[in-house]
Amino acid sequence: MIEERPSMLSRLAERFVSFAERWVPDAFVFALVATVLIFLLGVTAGGAGIPQMVQSWGKGFWELIPFTMQMALIIITGYVLASSRPVFRLIAWLAGRPRSAKSATVMVAVFAMLSSWLNWGFSLIFSAILAREVARRVQGTDYRLLAASSFLGLGSIWAQGLSGSAALQMTTPGALQPAIRDIVAAGGLVPGGMIPLRHTIFLWQSLVAVVVEIVVVAVVIWLIVPRPERARSAESLGVALGPPPGSEPAPHSAPQPGEWLERTPYLTLLIVVLGFSYLGWVFASTDDVLGAINLNTINLAFLMLGFLLHWTPARLMRAVREATGAVWGVLLQFPFYAGIVGMIVYTGLNHKIAEFFVSVSDPVTYPPLVSLYSTVLGVFVPSGGSKWVIEAPYVMQAAHSLQVHLGWMVAVYDLGEALANLVQPFWMLPVLSIFGLRARDVMGFTFVVFLVLLPVVLLLVTALALTLPYPL
Hints:
This protein is mainly alpha-helical. The protein has helices at 4-23, 27-44, 50-61, 65-82, 85-95, 101-118, 120-137, 143-150, 165-171, 178-185, 204-224, 257-263, 266-284, 295-310, 313-323, 328-345, 349-359, 366-380, 384-402, 406-420, 429-435, 439-465. The protein has one domain (4-16, 23-239, 261-465). The protein is 69% helix and 0% strand.
């Protein structure tokens, strides 16, 4: 009876996914619909005139260009690292350790979560390759569940880690509009409207939430792994695993001078020394080491590691070229999200939304309300960074009004936002092609995790908020 219950939930989730695949449009269409809805809301409930809404939209449209590039680089540098030969050798070694389907599947889930804390773009590719290699080596594993497990970092703790968009936006100059910084600053209460990482992802409360989520997800995966006779292998699903990464043929001998420069490590080593020297200077010249960790320093560090691990410019260029196909959605959608923020902030609509949150909550109920709201909104706006730009103006203003710890509200947002990825396939798409699967093949399993994790998150954000002072 214990094993039948997850199967029932999985079937329910598959029906939901079938409905979504038929009726729910692409995430970009949601951005367009949200633009229209916010425009109408500003004219009606906000009391702004049409010319003011048009001007506010245009004023905000291009204000997130630096952040758009930063988020694209998180995806690219993550792929560059995960696809390098040294990392693949580590993946192959890990894939050969488990001796049972249960332990192998749980291992994929745990490594997906741990690696997502370091960098979600790296985790997407690292975990997908790990899952495929496990499928090659461990008999009786369910290929669909391996694929779903490889994605669980983005459905749980990624936003609480070093590449968590909202936390990095709060500490990275230029990642948020000046109007949002002013709201957070509240007349100088929070200097510059900047919240360092020690008040967000490095709060002990955030770290406790991370540990709890890892344990809960690992237990859920252990319980829903099907028996070997009921598991679906890649072969039974019609998926050919193909050659592993790094198995491309060696280049021909006697390269031309230009090709020699592409294949020699000397230029790579010089650039790596330059990059890490700069990073060393950044951290050595500040009294607040955690404050120096932001989107720019993280992206540079991962890019330099990518240089080092790929060893030659040719291999690095190949990896970057392969990675760029996954960033088109970011490039297309983020300006529209910035335009939405412009309409919210520059028309004063954020004040009215904040007043609504204050009117229906108190300091105890506000964190779970925001977390649940972020989960629901994340189904329609599947980007932690761009969605935080939309939510930050009224979430942080209401936090001031209710006197709730501002850094914890960033963590609250993150915990809720990540859950949406378990029921929204947008960020699964870059790796589903690696598996040769469709969203419906894996989302039944991720929906089971969602059902268990949601009440856990709401309990965590409520209880841990009581241990934190206002404002930071």
